[in-house]
Structure formats: structure tokens, C-alpha cells
Design brief:
This protein is 72% helix and 0% strand. The protein has 15 helices and no strands. The chain is mainly alpha-helical and 299 residues long. The chain folds into two domains: 49 residues; 222 residues, MetI-like (MetI-like fold), CATH 1.10.3720.
Length: 299
């Protein structure tokens, strides 16, 4: 039997006045979400702000002033030196020359291979997909020396071809694996209906297959683009000619003969590279988010 005191205590514990109202909980939740977003923005934007401000500093400010100090004057001298003396413009052009054909080949061959192993019916397609996926487990550093020997014997060194071929080989396994997963989510009846209507495999691939996975194509294309554009090891391994260096390898031009780094133009060159990629990401943000969402729903 419960006593009067225990009943009163139970009622006091369940009193609505002691519980947080629904509106209060929602406000508290919004405050925590806003605080978390603000913290993430500070973590992400502060390094970029510091990088941008450092690109205007002189060598004297780097050596004698505090790291937290703002530049005394905002001039474009460092950017001019980075573009002329550091050859950032030529390095950007080399990166474009290497990245565009590499990315196009990776996407075309990778999407075609994924279409073949997932949509077409033929003997050995599962083994073929397994061979492509096994390429993900091979570190790229292990194949650089054999590739360099092969390129040297073929007289391809100090050209763009070693970088382009290597980027295609390194990008295909992940592209085939991811695109095969997207094609697996497409109903097989769609391609069967196209075949009944008289469409061949090539027409089904370009007219039906690619439009159905175009959002995924943007997402994987961005991943491969960043992997190729930001690569340093392959560019340094296969190019000894400074005129063929990509943007990442070209940033090494700001190191002097005795290891002295010219930080002003270096930060200006890094800013050109970083903010160029940031603008590209903002322009393609909607397509990238649609690709990620479709992958989350269909995967």
C-alpha cells in the first residue's frame, strides 16, 4: 500500500512544471545545432582566412611579425611574383592538360566497364569486376618504379603521357566499383524494354544508362578530379622537366637553393590553387549533392 507521502512525491516528480516544455526542447535543440554549425564553419574557414591573409605578407612580416598579425598592406605583388617567377600560370595549364584527358578517359572507360559487368550478360563478368575491385587494394607507390622503367624504355619520359596513363590506371578501379553499384540499382527491365524496342547495347548505354546515373557521374567525376589535380607523387616521379610540372609540383619552385622558402609567393600560389577548386565545387554543388543523395537512397 502506498502512503500519502509517497503519492505526493510521485505526483511532484511527474509535475509538468518540472519537465521541459516541447517548445523549450525545440529551441534548445536549435541552439545546439546552430552552435555546432558555427563551430564547424570556424574550423573550416579560419585556415582559409589565414591562408588568404598570409598571401599578402612580405618576407619581413613572416620573419619578424607575429603569426597572428594581419598584413600591413594589401598588394598583389606576391600574386604577380607567383604568376611570373613561380610559373603558376604554366603549372595550372599543365594540370589542365593532364587532368582533362585523364578524367575523361577514366569516366568513359569506367562507366562503360561498369555497364558491361552489371547490365550485359556474359560469362566471366563477375571475375572481371573482382579484378577491377582488387586494383583498389594495390598502393600506387608500389607501381611507380616499374612504370618509370617501362616509360623510360618506351621513350615517354618528360612528356604528359606517363602522368595521363598512370592517372587513368589508378582511377579506373574505384570508378568501376562505384558505377557498378549505381547500375545495379537500376531496374533491369528498363534495358530489356529498350532491347525489345530495337536499341543496341551502345545506344542503351548512351541514351538510357548514362542519363540514369548522371548524378553519380558528377560525384565520382569530382572525386577523381580532386585525386588527379591534387596529386604530387606521380608528377614528381615522371617529370624532370620544370616546364611540364603540374600545379602541385610547381609549388616547389618557391624553395630556394639552400632550403629557404619564399613564403609570400608560396601562399599566393596555394591560394590560387585552393580557391580555384573551391569555386569549382560551389558551381557543381547541386549536382554533387544530388549524386550523393541518389547513392544513399539506392545503395
Amino acid at each position: 500500500m502506498m502512503t500519502t507521502a509517497s503519492i505526493t512525491a510521485a505526483r511532484r516528480d511527474n509535475s509538468p512544471a518540472l519537465r521541459l516544455p516541447g517548445a523549450g526542447r525545440r529551441i534548445w535543440r536549435r541552439v545546439w545545432v546552430a552552435f555546432t554549425i558555427a563551430l564547424l564553419l570556424v574550423v573550416e574557414l579560419y585556415p582559409m582566412f589565414w591562408l588568404f591573409m598570409s598571401s599578402f605578407k612580405t618576407t619581413t612580416e613572416f620573419t619578424q611579425s607575429s603569426s597572428w598579425a594581419l598584413p600591413e598592406q594589401f598588394t598583389l605583388d606576391n600574386y604577380v611574383r607567383a604568376w611570373t617567377e613561380g610559373q603558376i600560370g604554366a603549372n595550372l595549364l599543365n594540370s589542365v592538360i593532364v587532368t582533362v584527358p585523364s578524367l575523361a578517359a577514366v569516366l568513359l572507360i569506367g562507366v562503360g566497364a561498369a555497364f558491361a559487368v552489371e547490365v550485359m550478360v556474359w560469362k566471366g563478368r563477375n571475375i572481371t569486376l573482382l579484378l577491377f575491385v582488387s586494383g583498389i587494394m594495390i598502393p600506387g607507390q608500389m607501381i611507380l618504379v616499374p612504370l618509370f622503367i617501362a616509360y623510360f624504355k618506351l621513350n615517354l619520359t618528360d612528356t604528359y603521357w606517363p602522368m595521363i596513363i598512370t592517372y587513368i590506371a589508378l582511377g579506373l578501379p574505384l570508378t568501376v566499383f562505384m558505377m557498378a553499384a549505381y547500375f545495379r540499382a537500376v531496374p533491369r527491365e528498363v534495358f530489356e524494354a529498350a532491347t525489345i524496342d530495337g536499341a543496341g547495347m551502345i545506344r542503351s548505354f548512351f541514351v538510357i544508362g548514362i542519363p540514369l546515373v548522371k548524378n553519380a557521374l558528377f560525384t565520382i567525376g569530382l572525386v577523381q578530379f580532386l585525386a588527379i589535380w591534387n596529386d604530387l607523387l606521380v608528377s614528381l616521379t615522371f617529370t624532370t622537366d620544370a616546364d611540364l610540372r603540374t600545379i602541385q609540383a610547381g609549388l616547389l619552385n618557391f624553395s630556394g637553393q639552400y632550403g629557404v622558402v619564399d613564403y609570400g609567393p608560396l601562399f599566393a600560389g596555394i591560394s590560387i590553387n585552393v580557391f580555384t577548386l573551391l569555386i569549382l565545387f560551389l558551381l557543381l554543388n547541386r549536382q554533387i549533392m544530388q549524386g550523393l543523395a541518389s547513392g544513399a537512397l539506392k545503395g
